[in-house]
Amino acid sequence: MCIETIQGEGGICPVNPEFLELASRLTKQGGALLVLDEIQCGLGRTGRHFAYQHYAVLPDVVTVAKPLACGLPLGAILTTERVASCIHPGMHGTTFGGGPLACAVAIEFLREEKKLLKHVRTLGEYFHAALETLDKKHKSIHDVRGAGLMLAVELVSPELAKAVAKQLLHQGIIINRTHETVLRFLPPYVIQKKHVDQLIGALDAALHKNAESAYEKTLKKEKTATSRRKAVHALPRTLAEICENVRDFVVLEHDERIIGCGALHLYGVHLAEIRSITVDPSSQSNGGGRRLVKALLAQAEKHKVTCVCLFTRIPEFFSRLGFTTAAHQDLPDKIHKDCYQCPRLYRCDEVAMVRGDVPTFAILPPPKNWLKIHA
Q1: Of 175, 195, 222, at which residue does a domain stop?
Q2: What is d(CA 176, CA 76) in angstroms, rounded to the nearest whole number?
Q3: Last residue of some domain: 222, 252, 279?
Q4: What is the pLDDT of residues 242-285, one digit of tens each?
Q5: Which residues contact 72 (CB under 8 A, 6 or more apart)?
Q6: 150: left (phi over 0), alpha (psi -120 to 50) or beta
């Protein structure tokens, strides 16, 4: 089983710890090998020698390459003694590899890498904190993630990510856009705080400029959109819209103060979705989120809905409220009318959950490749 510990081209997505531990157990039970691809995330990039050292897992094989010889062509595999004992002379080789120059450079790099690990961790924390600050300022930032000096900012649209990367390039700052919406940061290990500050300032300005432009384009599109599509994709944002959609919009109050809100969207007589739940942090520990969900469920009961679904990154919370995990493809009405328009369609990282009986749909044919959604 081959896994990239932190996906690079896939958008800087660290592997889930539970998933990696399960993969390790299953390969051991089945006599298979766990191979971790650390060509991009290994050799100090995350502040440890290898990214897998952030997990409680020991792989059988690790692949390394890119920084090993500082640009010269050189790759290597690291194995456990058990695996190494199975490889004999002549079984594994390369026509162009292991040259004396590349190997000499690699030896020097490994000496220097040990000295730089603390610096990578320190600058990585500083860099990550600065990106988190931008996240609080810009609604166009969907997520900030990564480890050490392998970081990413995911934006809300491919167009915005492309525009921001282009503007930064004009300012002499080279970053990479991966997986359409993700800005990837892989700076040199010797980067200093002044370089991070320079980037953050430029990124802040680029987001302000290009997000406003993207917002204007979105408003123009919304004006020409049908009322049906607006009902599916837009939550109430003005008082008039709230009044128009009041039966589906729930506001939670305490001591004359709004502490949370959420929406219930109906997909028909059988299915409704709880979406866009927001609860004041000070009320979360007092059961505010639980009360809000129960209020939305009560709203669903009034509509005599037999199944309520939602998509979340905190399934543990909703499982305590009677929700169970479901496959995304079990909810084709949701996918047809909402997910199919989403730029994250084929890389959704949210868990689908349902409460009640999942209805059988035969209204619409499935869109092309829709089963890839929960791959």
Answers
A1: 222
A2: 25
A3: 222
A4: 555 555 677 777 766 777 788 888 776 678 888 878 777 766 66
A5: 101, 102, 105
A6: beta
For 103-123, what is each residue's pLDDT tens digit?
999 999 999 999 999 999 999
Whether 72 and 140 share a structural domain: no
User: What percent of the chain shows pLDDT beyond 70?
Assistant: 77
Radius of gyration, alpha carbons of the chain: 25
* Residue numbers of the domain that contains 297: 228-374
Q: CA torsion 339→343→346→350, rounded to 10°? A: -60
Distance (Å, whole) CA 214 – CA 157: 9
DSSP at 374: G
Separation of alpha carbons 237 and 247, rounded Å: 15
Residues 270 and 364 in one domain: yes
18-32, 200-214, 350-364: segment of lowest average pLDDT: 350-364
pTM value is: 0.58
On the 0-12 / 13-18 / 19+ scale of CB atoms within 10 A, 114 is exposed
The SS3 call for residue 96 is coil
Instruction: Yes or no: say if 53 and 59 are a contact pair by the CB < 8 Å rule.
Output: no
Q: What is the mean pLDDT of residues 168-195?
A: 93
Instruction: Please name the amino acid found at residue 57.
Output: V
- Co-location of 52 and 77 in the same domain: yes
| pLDDT bucket at 374, cuts 50 / 70 / 90 | very low
Region of residue 276 (phi > 0: left; psi between -120 and 50: alpha; otherwise: beta): left
